[in-house]
Amino acid sequence: MNRAHNFSAGPATLPTEVLVKAQAELLDYKGAGASIMEVSHRGKEFDPVFDSAKARMKRLLGLSEKHHVMFLQGGATHQFFMIPMNFLNKGDSADYLNTGVWSQKAIKEARIYGDIKIPYSSEQSGFNRVPSANEVRFNPSAKFVHYTSNNTIYGTQFSTEPNTNGIPLVCDASSDFLSRPIDIDKYGLIYAGAQKNLGPSGAAVVILDDEFLKKAHTDNIPTYLQYGSHTGELYHTPPTFTIYLIDLVLEWLENLGGVAAMEIINKQKAKMLYCAIDDDDFYENQVETDSRSKMNVLFRIKNRDLESVFLKEAEAHNLIGLKAHRSTGGIRASLYNAVSLQSVEILVDFMSDFRRRFG
Ligand SMILES: Cc1ncc(COP(=O)(O)O)c(C=O)c1O
Q: What structural domains does the chain harbor?
């Protein structure tokens, strides 16, 4: 078996233990004589999987009775329009922080539904930073504040939630969900595309506070697209195999000690890699230090011509997924939960050997 050291930004590596378990259960799920994806979504096999995934999520994030956990199709992009569709009436306004392409995509969809204000943008400086907690003044009449906690493409991350003085926070946490503890009481809604820290692509996890849900409207919203349709009994056939895999990933995370334990490992991985980049001036990282992401670490080689050589050699060394997004260029190592400390050590060793040979 060849499992590469996979630094892909998403879809991303999943814990090998999870894939091995899914493989073992694929043909005959716990004696059912069928795979979990071949049985009823309302039957005795899938019911406990669904309940377990929600219960694990609640334990991992310290959610209370007032929180709904949903697994919805369409990934994070689907949430870009579903949120303003449910929470903005004509004439309502919301504040969106613009910290990169994903924020901009969310803004574009929100503008279909309401008056969207941008109290902060880091576009001028090439999205190389995010604001500190008290840096932004929010519009007091905003129905919610939307932000992207980790900017996958630029390698920036909020170290703490923006201080909104009580305006509900809505967060696209696609690329740092469950990578560290969060203060859940600050959020009206958190969503994350599954394909980084959770499971396969094409679905999003949504955590919704019931108090915030009460502010949603349903006028002219198709039933499936109303959040309220997903808080009780199953409204439709959900992505059962995806939910099963998410449950296995959450089990893996619980066995590891939960998000606080995960954060310690994630900090170690990021520290090791940033130290290797900062070591001398062969590599460089252009993000402001306080805004550096622990999930997506971007770096360039000062001599840009060497970057394609680096990527090619890295692949030959079983280090894959390191090419950065086409809009930034350069190299990006995504250090999601399932990327092991050992994989990062091997990357750092490769980087120092490369520097020795080409520096
Ligand atoms: C921060 C962030 N938001 C949203 C998305 C879009 O997610 P999806 O492709 O699941 O719609 C991505 C994808 O990489 C992302 O990184």
A: 16-256 (3.40.640.10), 258-358 (3.90.1150.10)
